[in-house]
Structure formats: C-alpha cells, structure tokens
Amino acid sequence: MAGKVILVGTLDTKGQEFKFIKELIEGTGVKTVVVDAGVKGKPPFPPDIANDRVAAAGGTPLDELLRKDDRGLAMEVMTKGAANILTELYNKGEVAGVISLGGSAGTTIGTAAMRALPVGVPKVMVSTMASGDTRPYVGVKDITMMYSVVDISGINSLSRRILANAAFAVAGMAGGELPAGAQDKPLIAATMFGVTTPCVTKAKEYLEAQGYELLVFHATGTGGQAMEGLVDGGFMKGVLDITTTEWADELAGGVLSAGPHRLEAAGKNGLPQVVSVGALDMVNFGPPDTIPAKYKDRLFYQHNPTVTLMRTTAEECRKLGEIIAAKLNAAQGPVALFLPLKGVSLIDTAGKPFFDPEADAALFDALRTNIDRAKVELIEMDNDINDDEFALAMAAKLQSYLEK
C-alpha cells in the first residue's frame, strides 16, 4: 500500500484523541500523516503538516488569523486549507484513507476535506453530529459517519472503544485490496424512481447485454446530485436520464430537489445522453401534515406513510418543459429527448390517480416549442414510459451514440 491514512483535525482541542487513533492505526502497520487544522494552542504532539501550512493553503497566514481572532474567518480558512492539502496529497498518490473526529467545527473541517477526495477513497468521520441530519457533511460522497455517543473530550472507557473502532475501520479499509474481478466495463448512469422502475430495468438489461455497466441512481435529490458529480468526475461514458422528476421538486418546493444545476453535467462534459420526462407528474412531500398550506386544494396520492405525492399542474408542467429544453439545448454532446405520449409514470396512465392528459400535453408542447432541433433529437412514441418498446428504444439510441 503506497498511500497513508490522513488524520485531519484540530489538535489544539482534540490532540489527545488524535494521538490515540494515530497510534492504533500505526499499530496495524498502516502509516499515517497528521494534518493540524487547529488555530490556537500548542498541539500535544508534532503534526506532519502544521497549522500554519493549512492556513496558508486556505489563503490567509496563521498570524493574521490569530491577530484578528475571528472564529468564523478561522473556520472558513482552515476548512478550505484542509481540503486543499488533502487534494494535494491525493494528487501525489499519498492518500489511502482519511479519518477525522470532532464536534460541529471539527466535523465541518474534516468532512470538507473528505469531500475534496474522489468516491472510493475510504473516509471515516467520528462526530457528535452523526446522529442528526448529516446531508451538509456527507453531500454526495461516500463518507462513513460514526456517532461518538459521548462528546469527544478526552479518552474514557466508552470513547476509547468508539475511537478504536473508527481507527481499525479506516486502517482496514485503507489496507484492504479488492479481489481480482471481471474487466471493467464502460459505465452508464441511469436515473430511476419506483414509478419508472420497469422502464429502467428493461433498459438496463439491454445495455448490460451489450457490454455496458449501468449505475442506477434513485432520483431523490441526493441521487441526482451524486450522478452529476460522478459525471463531472469523469466516471461515466453516457447518461440514460429517464427520471428527471427532481426538477418538479425544485420548481414546486418539494423535498427531493437536486438543485438548479440538475441536467447540466452530461451536457457540459459532452457525454452522450438520452433523456426522458419520468415522474414529472409528481412533487414529493413528507406526511400530509408537512405539506405547505398553499397546496391544500391540490391532488395528492399517499405513496406510503412518510411520502405524499402531489400532481403537477398544467402550468407547472409547461414551466418544466421550458427548463428542461434550456438545459438540453446547452449540451455540448449528442442528446436525444424521448416523450412517452401515454404517460410519464406508473400512476400517470389511463385509469390511474395522476392521469392528466392536459398537464402532460402542456409538458410535451413546451418541450416541442423550446427544444433546439439542431442540437436535440426529439423522439415521440405512442407508449407510456414503462412500456418495453419505449425503454428499449431509449437504450438502443444511447448505444448508437456511444458506438459513434
């Protein structure tokens, strides 16, 4: 193993704990590099990369941070510096894994550094914040969050075991080797929801039979963000974006938005993409009592006790068509847009709860009107989105783009 486990944290307040996990990791035969992101106070042991270097990497000299005595500024600088240091070490081939520990400040610094690393690099964060909403810390990276149970304040009978578990976990991940497997296949990203599963499953079967590997992302906001991040990271050869429903949540304030940059990564990077309008008939909310009052007169469907779906209106569908057209028109690579004229989800077909031909027509008309036919291949089919014929047509189109 050429790389080392990087320990990132504030040694001025958590030095004893970092020394403890450093010794445990090295006891397994794995080497370490300690990065000190603290500002005040002398660390109890000398780090490999001192805080003055971290501050400089964050854009502000350490003595200036000390003189200004501004905690918010210090956090910003050290967070940026730690991420830059980790990136530098990774680019040199020196990172086999990373571990950090802390409260809210330490978790912010540690996970920012981890998010600077690619997916696949082992990342362990022991945190007092791990039992709550971890989305701000994890983002779309494979960060393992371990709840510290007690505050990280010295070594006691309970924290000793928890910190040891974390140390052995990252050492094991860093030192482990994958068994020899099949030759890597070209990766294709696909998006799926429960109401588009038959379509994605059929397309996946077809493309995998042609020698590709599909990574399917659940279109839950973070799923779309993760896909776009991996596309930006150069992992994918093409995108089968069947389920663009996250844009409905972004437009109407649902809980599964992927943000305003969804549908940009493939086009920006020139990747072949085949796109459809899967599940644009719905906006996602939590239990009924969480739905905004302004929507009280809308059509709802109780998907399960914790998920309530709201049918998009014709006006919302029209706006969605305009947004998606603009995103696809900006693409730098080949792109096809498939329209399933008989329904965009399992519950948007004749006789189903969200069947609304007027709303679907508004979506389709907006796309027809706004798509730049010189850049986007528009294909309309007299099927619903989950018909095998529709799924196979999309898969074959993407295959034709990839083979070119």
TrEMBL record:
Residues 4-176, 185-400 form the UPF0261 domain. It holds the Pfam family UPF0261_C. InterPro entries: Tobamovirus_resist_UPF0261 (IPR051353), UPF0261 (IPR008322), UPF0261_C (IPR056778), UPF0261_N (IPR044122). Gene3D superfamilies: Uncharacterised protein family UPF0261, NC domain (3.40.50.12030), Uncharacterised protein family UPF0261, NN domain (3.40.50.12020). PANTHER family: UPF0261 DOMAIN PROTEIN (AFU_ORTHOLOGUE AFUA_1G10120). This is Tm-1-like ATP-binding domain-containing protein.
